[in-house]
Design brief:
alpha+beta
Length: 110
């Protein structure tokens, strides 16, 4: 997620527009504090609603946990994870080392 200061908007408005055209969220700050989020206007936004689209986008970007995203989307965690799965979005993101450890733990539990 690209971050812009309120002062930069005048000089970088083209970059903000490109981010939106490419379907990416952008954060605008004032004095280092979040002011607003630029959410691309898409068909998905119209169908799913801004809360759900924002939650999915922030989750995919690694900005928030699945539990926080579910709350933002106004869904239970199970509903949100099912929604991600329906869209083909992985609900876990293990590094190769973490995956190896998880599989080892699973095998040890047998």
């Amino acid at each position: 997620m690209q971050t812009f200061t309120i002062r930069e908007l005048r000089e970088r408005s083209g970059e903000l527009s490109r981010e939106a055209e490419e379907g990416r969220l952008s954060l605008v700050t004032r004095h280092g504090q979040p002011l607003f989020v630029s959410v691309p206007f898409t068909e998905e936004l119209l169908q799913s609603g801004v809360h759900t689209v924002l939650a999915v986008s922030l989750f995919k970007a690694g900005e928030i946990t699945s539990a926080r995203a579910a709350k933002l989307a106004r869904m239970s965690l199970a509903q949100f994870l099912a929604h991600l799965s329906d869209q083909g979005i992985p609900v876990v993101d293990y590094s190769p080392t973490e995956l190896k450890q998880e599989l080892s733990n699973f095998d040890a539990a047998k």
